[in-house]
Amino acid sequence: MVLIGAIGLFLLVQAIPSLALDNANFLFSREWSTGDVTNMRYGILDLFLVTVVSAAFALLIAMPVALGIALFLTQYAPRRLARPFAYVIDLLAAVPSIIFGLWGLFVLGPVLTPLGEWLISSLGFIPLFAKGNVSIALGGTIFTAGIVLAVMILPIITAVSREVFDRTPGPHIEGAIALGATKWEVVRTTVLPFGKAGYVSASMLGLGRALGETIALTIILSATGSSFGWSLFDGGATFASKIALAAPEFNDPKSAGAYIAAGLVLFVLTFVVNAAARTIVAGHKEYE
């Protein structure tokens, strides 16, 4: 707690002088110009939207996949298959972020191009699938980044969900079987109700991981001078990737303070998400 408080205090102290020099609305402006410290104009709205949309898209993909894997490993797969398969899923967490970034940009991006073109032509009337502000052929879109993030957070959600489902009381399962329930009915009436809070909490932890991802998204997302237009095929920058790309500007404390202010918002956002995960689990003695 002291360490977290110290980090938050450091970010706040470093950010305040630069916030005082900001000539734009920090929370609602889409501008980002910190080169001239006498006329800095910057806001986090675009960074916030790109960060949240890419993380939410990743979570939307990862949650059902993780649920299916966790249920398969705990309820359907034989033990001799479940153990090595679980190790393979867990090993995804050991892959460095830079490898995911390179894979997403040079391998996954080109593969997804035909799918992206079809979505734009068929569902382009929906803002989420409208033509973006970067070339889809380059793969540097939120669509690609979200899928890569989904793969990265999959081990977290799967591992926690698997542990929760494994703790389903045996008498509950045996009672359902004794009443003639099928395997799916056992899962639906005993395993899922018991593990729901843990599964949601695991998903929130995965969301926190996605919000703070840096290197992979720095590699994948294409920079653009246009504002975020609510399309998955837009480029842009998240809080973390914007800060990583701006390292050469950190030699000036006033300019660096603008990025520290953005980092403070990301710190608060991830803290709130992880606190929400803890709150969901709190009160469920079976998870303690």
From TrEMBL:
Species name: Umezawaea tangerina
Transmembrane segments: 44-73, 85-112, 132-157, 214-233, 256-277
Compartments it resides in: Cell membrane
Protein name: Phosphate transport system permease protein
GO BP: any one term: phosphate ion transport
Highest taxon above the source species: Bacteria
Membrane topology: Multi-pass membrane protein
GO cellular component: plasma membrane
First-listed, main subcellular location of the protein, grouped into a coarse class: membrane
Known role: Part of the binding-protein-dependent transport system for phosphate; probably responsible for the translocation of the substrate across the membrane.
